[in-house]
Amino acid sequence: MFEIPVYNTEGEKIDTIKVEPEQFGGKVNVALLKQAIVAYHTNKRLGTAATKNRSMVEGSGRKLFRQKGTGYARRGAIRTGKVKGGGVTFAKIPHKPRKKLPKKMRRKALDSAILAKIIGSDLLIVDGLSTSEPKTKYIANVLKNLGITRSCLLTLAEYDENLYLSARNIPNVSVRIVKELNAFDVATRNKLLMTREAFSSLLSRPAGVAVSNG
Predict the structure, then answer these.
(1) How far is CA 96 from the centre of its chain?
(2) Span 189-207, mean pLDDT?
(3) What average pLDDT is seen over the chain?
(4) Are strands 13-19 and 2-7 parallel, antiparallel or unpaired?
(5) What number is the average pLDDT over the span 90-114?
(6) Distance set, CA 91 to CA 50, 76, 98, 126 (Å)
């Protein structure tokens, strides 16, 4: 059983939450976590790479000289890929690369990423995080009080515009709600900071619930 400390916004430990490893799959599935991260990386690619084939370049389609008797290579029209300025022989075309993961695999990969954060003491729970107006200094002070100096994923139970606007300008800090969590975001941030409400919402997820596919 793990005991996760709960802090207030001043960085003081006020409580602990007990969690069984089985609630997050029992163990970290490294192979599945890697597969999920590769899939999320792939799905972020734009797929806009393209080159021109011979039908896309300017020039006549007339054969430059006769097939035999000139001593030159048999290269055909000026738009062929054998001459400078011609089209690319096997041209790249824009396409959207996609790697799909089933819902259960995405869920298990997310559980492994969160469990890895718990084991490494990189999951922090904060209580009382709220602000009546957007104020970046407020979130920056909370992170400082909690000793978070590197990349961080702030997770909320529901969308809060004031907290989102307060945190978005801080370098290396991302904001997500529980429904948007995915293995890639969790695994690629140094710290996972969750509000108490967000962590309770995470624990109360129904079995087999879908998670974000990135």
Answers:
(1) 17
(2) 90
(3) 91
(4) antiparallel
(5) 91
(6) 7, 18, 20, 53
pLDDT tens-place string over residues 140-174? 999 999 999 999 999 999 999 999 999 988 999 99
Domains identified in the chain and CATH numbers:
2-45+99-203 (3.40.1370.10), 47-96 (no CATH)
Q: Terminal CA-to-CA distance of the chain, rounded, Å?
A: 30
CB 127 within 8 Å of CB 196 = yes
What are the C-alpha distances in Å from 165 to residues 81, 102, 132, 189?
52, 33, 11, 19
Residue 36 pLDDT level (bands cut at 50, 70, 90)? very high
- How many CB atoms neighbour CB 167 within 10 A? 23
Q: What is the mean pLDDT of residues 58-78?
A: 86
* Amino acid identity at 52: K
User: What digits encode the pLDDT tens for the residues 127-142?
Assistant: 999 999 999 999 999 9
Of 20, 24, 91, which Cα lies nearest the Cα of 53? 91
